[in-house]
Design goal:
about 40 residues, mainly alpha
Length: about 40
């Protein structure tokens, strides 16, 4: 049997007060990349 994992292990940016500081930047980058792909 595999070892038990924390319930937040699937959350890429964490949950609660200790969220990743790059979350907003990463989301903005994703939007910019999507916009550039759709322009082509």
């Amino acid at each position: 049997m595999p070892p038990a994992q924390a319930s937040t292990s699937a959350a890429p940016f964490g949950i609660g007060q200790r969220q990743c500081i790059g979350k907003e930047f990463a989301l903005m980058e994703g939007q910019l990349i999507l916009a550039r792909l759709l322009q082509r």
